[in-house]
Amino acid sequence: MLKSLFRRKNIDQAIKDVNSVEHGSGLAKVLGVRDLTMFGIAAIIGAGIFSTIGRASFNGGPAVSLLFVFTAIACVFTALSYAQFASTVPVSGSAYTYAYVSFGELFAWIIGWALVLEYAVSNMVVAISWSEYFVSMLENIFRIHFPRWLAIDAGTAKLAYQDVQKATANGTLGEIASNMKALAQAYVDAPTFAGIKIIFNLPAGAITGLITALIYTGIKESRNASNILVVIKLAVILLVIVGGVFYIDTANWKPFAPNGMKGVMMSVASVFFAFIGFDSISTTAEECKDPQRDLPKAMLITLAICTILYVVITLVLTGMVNYKELGVNDPLAYVFEKVNFDWMAGIISVSAVVAITSALLAYQVGQPRIWMVMSRDGLLPKKFSKIHKKYKTPSFATIITGLFVGIPSLFMNMQFFIDLTSVGTFFAFILVCCGILYMDHTGLSKNSKFRVPYINGKFIIGITFLAALFWTKYNTDGVFAHIGEKPLIIVFWLAWLAISIMALKYKFSLLPVMGILTNLYLMTELGWSNWRMFLIWVVIGIAIYFLYGYKNSKLNKA
């Protein structure tokens, strides 16, 4: 049984399945490098640049621009690994497919299950964020009042109401923020049915439904819509940069890291969340005209463009106002209001809705295609791999994705979903980088049209490990000084030690190892609550695998 859990999918068979009578001739091959790059930008330049970038700058100051660079470097190492896999296995499924051909079925299932967090669950966050911007746009730009009880979850509204009640009783109502008072009033205003307050997030559910309908009707239609939305938001971002440069006061950049590295690293989750969309490109492999050539190019171009934009925007924001003022949900609009550039703030508010819409579309495209490939392998019911005869899309999987995202976003709190996201993505990225080491060891890399540049890490990995230990000892309080605050850091050091020892024997390629270590380090910066939620999610996924996937696996039947 242990052997069967790690049975691997043959690469040639995986490619053959795509063109078989049973599965093939379904998806339309219409995407080129430009389209793939647009999809990547659509996924990456979304809520991050219009929202979380402000909170990140508030915690870390101007130095957060360096965190974007550091995170992008981690993503570059990972993107190179993704690119090699994409050129070797031009099949939809992203990290799930790559894990199946390198580590076997159980790991593939765990990664596929983790990718549900990256795509579907992350999209719940994006949908709720879209709702906030949409309601704000209606009220501030078009002067249309949207009922708050139709744009919030019941739990948040009830909690705000209870806080206001307590503050009123204690005589501290003046200390309650105005937005909390608005949420409490929404709870009061909400109609009641059978003793239950009717409160739900209608815009979040509605936009998810509309995007799902668009994706259902065809990849060409989705591509065209995505390209238009991306052009609009890139134009606005460039306008922000050009306009903001004239209001920069370099005094705001001092101190550059006011809260030290601790303050900068506090924002790892939100900064990395901004980048995770680049792998959505690989989910469209079967709809590419030339996936083995175009996917690697698109991934690297996307990362380069988005990193430059994030770094420049961070420097502009922290140059226009003091970093202490950026702890707001709409930092781009806020800084222009601060310098009395009100019409620009209005444009940004509208463009935020456009930007988040395109991100929502990109993620909704990815999830059904992962489920489609898992279904082909027998790990999910056959319905998930059904291709619509007219629209050439995975129809059933698209509908289920829409329901899976739309229904929870109507009723759930955003913070609950945020706690579920980044750990799963880091885990997937680490396994993809490990997969390149496996391909090098087994000789599969010889068949790759694109290869991660090989740098022999036999001695370099171990030497850098010792150097890092030495630097930590003499420049900080030591490796284990803050183990109580960051107990997960021990995982990072033990992994680095193990890889250093194995590199002596297997002559590991340096770049994939750098991807493993940087992703693992960023992973340890996340809170234990994130890890706990992820482990619970994995346990649920493994239970489902043994109840259905193990016995219905195509490899098992073979």
Automatic annotation (TrEMBL):
GO terms for cellular component: membrane. Coiled coil: none annotated. It is found in: Membrane. The keyword Lipoprotein does not apply. InterPro entries: AA/rel_permease1, CAT_C. The keyword Membrane applies. It is a multi-pass membrane protein. The chain crosses the membrane at residues 36-58, 64-83, 198-216, 228-248, 260-278, 299-323, 343-366, 393-411, 417-439, 451-471, 483-503, 510-528, 534-550. Its main location: membrane. Pfam families: AA_permease_2, AA_permease_C. One of its GO terms (molecular function) is amino acid transmembrane transporter activity. Residues 510-553 form the Cationic amino acid transporter C-terminal domain. This is Amino acid permease. Keywords: Membrane, Transmembrane, Transmembrane helix, Transport.
